[in-house]
Structure formats: structure tokens, C-alpha cells
Amino acid sequence: MTAPVPPSATGPGMEPVLRCGAARPNPPFVPAIYDHKAWLIHETPSAVSRDADLLARAILEEHAVIRPDALTVGIDVYNIEAEAAGCKVTFYDDGSGSIPGIETGHHAFRIGDDFPAMPVPDPRKDGRMWVNVEAARRVVRELGPDCWVRGAISGPFSLAANLVGAEELFLACLEEPERAHSLLGYAVRIIREYAKAHVDAGAGLVMFDSQASPDMISRKMYEEFVLPPTKDLIRHFAAQGVRDVPLIVGGNVAAIIDLLIETGANNLLCDFTADWDECSRACRAAKRALRRNISSRLIQESSPDEIYAAARREIERAGDFPGFLMGTAVICFGTATEKILAVRQACNDVPPRL
User: Fold this and answer.
1) Which fold is adopted by the domain 29-65+74-348?
2) 3-class SS shares of the chain: helix, strand, coil, % to 5
3) What is the pLDDT of residues 27-85, one digit of tens each?
4) Are strands 89-90 and 101-102 parallel, antiparallel or unpaired?
5) What is the three-class DSSP state of 96?
6) What are the boundaries of each domain within the chain?
């Protein structure tokens, strides 16, 4: 398991990320484009998420049209590992832009199951793991090593919530902590194998764990149940040569920014609802890169000129923060391309930092 190292990286901590066709070195532009990829090739998320050819084509179109500084391999990024483990996913073949989702009441496990004895899904054949891994392989082969392609993996708490249901997991954390820890251990085993398959395909990683948002669980719960398995995963990835692991936890992350730093992830998210000043102070001190999002609603409801102005305000607010990345919240399916490119242009119009 040997991950590609961004050639622009110069040391641990706030490395600049590798750029896929950026016009200027700073700040990197990292929009959250998942199901919207399908719209770019006039397909539905359900169709693209089940077809490696379509998914690779959608990612390459994203690269050509949007020119982000990082690409994410995935459509419904939270479902893949859980589906491979046995959860049932609903797809929408009605021509709509609806995102596939795990069916309510069709989780594969119960909190009291014997998780240490459970088999781990095989990324070569189980569920749609192979679709994403094969798409990653094709995109890396097409774009070469100078483009940062990341395989989307679930964080341990979000995967555990999908395996048994969020309510059952939350109750177990409060009433049956040993069983919750056992479930999270199983989630870690699954994530390790899926991550290895992406890295073996030549891709990097990006970890999504928004079920662990402070909008969803308490700081104490994060510290007890989420921090240990997340640290375990990131240490494991580092030992295998993966030096850059973005950790995507949405919501008001200022409340747990010190714990997110403690995970070992070198690239964190300050969502549009979180306090930038508090998050950036902590990340500057800890030498962590930090992505600032502007909201999906602003992008949906505003003109390109208004979006450009909002992005420039965030960039200017970041000042000389060396690990700043300009991002967006999840881009809605069907969003006009010129709106996304307004954020791209705001990044391009900033002189490079020396």
C-alpha cells in the first residue's frame, strides 16, 4: 500500500496540495462535487454510481470543465462500504437526480452482533467498491501523477451508523459502550481494506465522517468513540505511505477542532457554519491545512458575481494562513457551471503567495 505523494508537498503539516490544472499556485480550489458529476455527462447519480466507465468519464469531465485542484472518486460517498457489507441501497432509475441511499430499516447488522467474527467485504467484488476503485485507476492512468485524485472512504462513526442505523449507534454509545466500540472496530477493518484498494490503484484518500459532526454528537462522545478509531486509521495510512488524509466533518467544528487535529489528519474542514478565526488559529498552531466552505444555498440562490464576491471575502479573511484551501459545501445536482467557476475565478485572481 503505497500512496502517491503530491510533488508540491515539502514537509509534514500545511503542505500545499497538488493542483489539477490550477492557473495559480494559491489558494487551491476544492469544491465538493459528488452526485453533480453525473449531471456533467447528462446522466443520473444512480446510473453513474453503478458503472465504472460512466464514473471515470464523469470525473474526467469534472476535471476538464471545473478544473478543481483535487478530484474525489465517488457519488454517494457514505454508502459504498456499508452496501458491500450487506446494507440495501435504493437506486433511482426514474431519470431524476436523486442520490442513492441506504433503505431505512435495511441495515445489515444489529448492535449486539459478533463483530470481531464478521468477514470484511472484498473491494474486488463486493457491492460497488470495485466500481469506485476501477474508476480511480482509470482516472489516475488518464491524468497521470500530477493530479490529486482521492478515493472517498467513510469515517468510522459514519460507517458504523450506516451498518446498524444512526439511532441504534447513538443509543449504544450511551447505554452499551463496549458494543459500540466493537462495532467501530469492525468499521475500521472495512475501511482499511477499501482504502488499500484505492491506494493500490494509485489514488490518495479523503475520509468523510459527518455523522460525527458536533451538530450530531457531543464533544465527549466524539472524544470517546470517534477519536480513537480515527487516529488508528490515520496512523495506519501513514505507516503505509499515505501522507495526506483530508478529514471531512461538517457543521460547527470549532467546538472540536482540537480533537480533529488530534486525529492526525493534516487537512481539515471549516464548514460555512463554523468560526473561521477559531479554527484557523488552532490549525495554524498545529500546522494543519484548512479548507473553508461557502454554502450550497449561497451558490444555488446567488449570481456568479455574488458568489465570486463571497469567495473573495473568504480568501481575504484567510490572509496569510499558509494552509488555506477554498472550498464549497456539496454542490447540488444540476448547479449551473458558471456558478462553480465563479469560485474558481476568485482563486485564480489572487496573486501567488511567496
Assistant:
1) TIM Barrel (3.20.20)
2) 45, 10, 40
3) 999 999 999 999 999 999 999 999 999 999 999 999 999 999 999 999 999 999 999 99
4) antiparallel
5) coil
6) 29-65+74-348
